[in-house]
Amino acid sequence: RAKEAGRGRWTLFDPKENARAVSRYAVSVRMPAALDRGEFFIDYQPMVDLASGAMTGVEALVRWRHPQLGVLGPEEFVGVAEETGLIMPLGRWVLEQACEQAADWVARFGDRAPRLSVNLAVRQARNAGLVGDVERTLRSTGLDPSMLQLEITESTVVGPEDEALKALHALVDMGVSLSVDDFGTGWSNLAYLRDLPVSNLKIAGSFVGDLHDPAKDTHLGWRIVSGLVSLAHTLGLSVTAEGVESRADAERLRLMGCDLAQGWHFGRPARPAEIARRIAEADLEAAPDPEFGYES
Ligand code: C2E
Ligand code: MG
Ligand code: MG
Ligand code: MG
User: Where is the EAL domain (predicted)?
Assistant: First the structure.
């Protein structure tokens, strides 16, 4: 492969770029049919309440089982899907599929079922049909709106006059909640937070990840994270740290008052059966110890 062959060599064309261009082509050609052929699937990553340790939510992360290229992550195809417009049917499919899955967990586990978080592409948020799509999906799956959170990015809303803002307000009026994903990585003017009815900020995994980069100032890194936690709380918002890979980081985040965390330390994105197993396991832990019952 060009990727391997080119490592550490100077060439006129970046072989990595070339490999990517080829796969982008392969990706864009196959993608329209892929949806009909059922090649996409969704993994769910646990989101954990740092104070209690409970898995209170899951994030839906789309994947593509490409017949030639193997399983592709969203980084490989969501960009192309945005450019080609395929993100619209794909996004609708993810929303429906994930809401159906979440409703199934509610039916099986009641209030122990995790809340569902779904990523919204900029283009989806700007589409006039969004509110209707969400409304219809909630109705057809029977999922309570309070169980759904939509993750938008800082670039979704540009200003107070923005069309997307109306749709986002309508969704919140419906009972759906909004979260700002990858918070702190954009260049945006924070004033958008005054117009946006969000309830949660997700601190980008890159902030937490950089805390272990020997080339970066760890002390300053932690102060930025701590500042973002304070900012969220000052605004009355809950805050989630992404990319938490170690117990030490989780503990430090908990001590600084961060509400929720997500990352490999708590669980990688997983198949629905694995999530169900974790919910059931937590149920067992919470059940009274039978030994106690016999003694009394
Ligand atoms: P995101 O929404 O910020 O999702 C978090 C990403 O970080 C996921 O990558 C997840 O697998 C990864 N991650 C989680 N914990 C850790 C950790 O401890 N360490 C490290 N290094 N990484 C961790 P993934 O699944 O590749 O998704 C990448 C991005 O693709 C997502 O970033 C999201 O922006 C986008 N995406 C995923 N699914 C969808 C979707 O259905 N629709 C849209 N529009 N975008 C999606
Ligand atoms: Mg996200
Ligand atoms: Mg994120
Ligand atoms: Mg991201």
Answer: 24-283
- Please write the tens of the pLDDT for every residue from 206-215: 887 777 777 7
Nearest bound ligand to the CA of residue 123: 1
Residues around ion ligand 3, judged by CB within 5 A, are: 181-182, 242
Could you tell me the pTM of the whole model?
0.90
Q: What mean pLDDT do residues 97-120 have? A: 98
Strand partners, 152: 180
Neighbours of 124 (CB within 10 A): 25
Residue (of 174, 223, 189, 176) closest to 203 by Cα position: 223
Q: Is 205 in the pocket of ligand 1 (CB under 6 A)?
A: yes
| Of 179, 181, 172, 70, nearest in space to 130 by CA | 172
pLDDT number for residue 4: 41
3-state SS, residue 232: helix
155: helix, coil or strand? coil
Distance, CA of 20 to CA of 251 (rounded, Å): 38
| Three-class SS state of 25 | helix
